[in-house]
């Protein structure tokens, strides 16, 4: 690799029988060839992060909003009629982790930022949602925005 401090390289060549001074200006974007190394290992499922989203889905009137309220300790509307939830309800829930608590006690950091799970209450899934029934594509876009899906069923 060239010396990064010396980006201008003058040299003399004979072209067409004449002596010419050529100057080559190297780009600082030139990089050394990569060393042979092992490829990076990626997570096989989901994405790594401290704030993941899980969506609660299921048929109408199965108790999704009630389950959402219990998980998040919130007061979202949970009425006994289909499509009580049109716009998704979202709430962050801290993820309890005894290892995190131990590390905070041991190292005593200035600030503590625990991992959070964003729980999303998504409107009911109806037959024909892929063809525009119910909320249609809006329902599918709410699901697409989540990292995981919790399908709530009633027996």
UniProtKB/TrEMBL annotation:
What's a GO cellular component annotated to this UniProt protein? cytoplasm
Specify the superkingdom.
Answer: Eukaryota
Per its UniProt record, what InterPro entries does this chain match?
A: G_OBG (IPR031167), GTP-bd (IPR006073), P-loop_NTPase (IPR027417)
Domain OBG-type G, by residue range, is 52-155
Q: Which UniProt keywords apply?
A: Nucleotide-binding
Listed GO MF terms: ATP hydrolysis activity; GTP binding
Pfam families referenced in this protein's UniProt entry, alphabetically: MMR_HSR1
PANTHER family, sorted = OBG GTPASE FAMILY (PTHR23305), OBG-LIKE ATPASE 1 (PTHR23305:SF11)
Name of the protein this chain belongs to = OBG-type G domain-containing protein
Organism encoding this protein: Ladona fulva (Scarce chaser dragonfly)
């Amino acid at each position: 690799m060239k010396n990064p401090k010396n980006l201008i390289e003058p040299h003399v060549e004979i072209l067409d029988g004449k002596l010419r001074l050529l100057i080559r200006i190297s780009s600082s974007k030139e990089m050394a060839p990569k060393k042979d190394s092992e490829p990076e290992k990626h997570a096989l499922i989901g994405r790594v992060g401290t704030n993941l989203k899980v969506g609660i889905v299921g048929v109408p009137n199965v108790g999704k909003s009630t389950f959402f309220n219990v998980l998040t300790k919130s007061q979202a509307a949970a009425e006994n009629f289909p499509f009580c939830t049109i716009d998704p309800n979202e709430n962050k829930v801290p993820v309890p982790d005894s290892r995190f608590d131990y590390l905070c006690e041991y190292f005593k950091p200035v600030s503590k930022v625990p991992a959070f799970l964003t729980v999303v209450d998504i409107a009911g899934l109806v037959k024909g949602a892929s063809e525009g029934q119910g909320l249609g594509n809006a329902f599918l876009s709410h699901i697409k925005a989540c990292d995981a899906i919790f399908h709530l069923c009633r027996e």
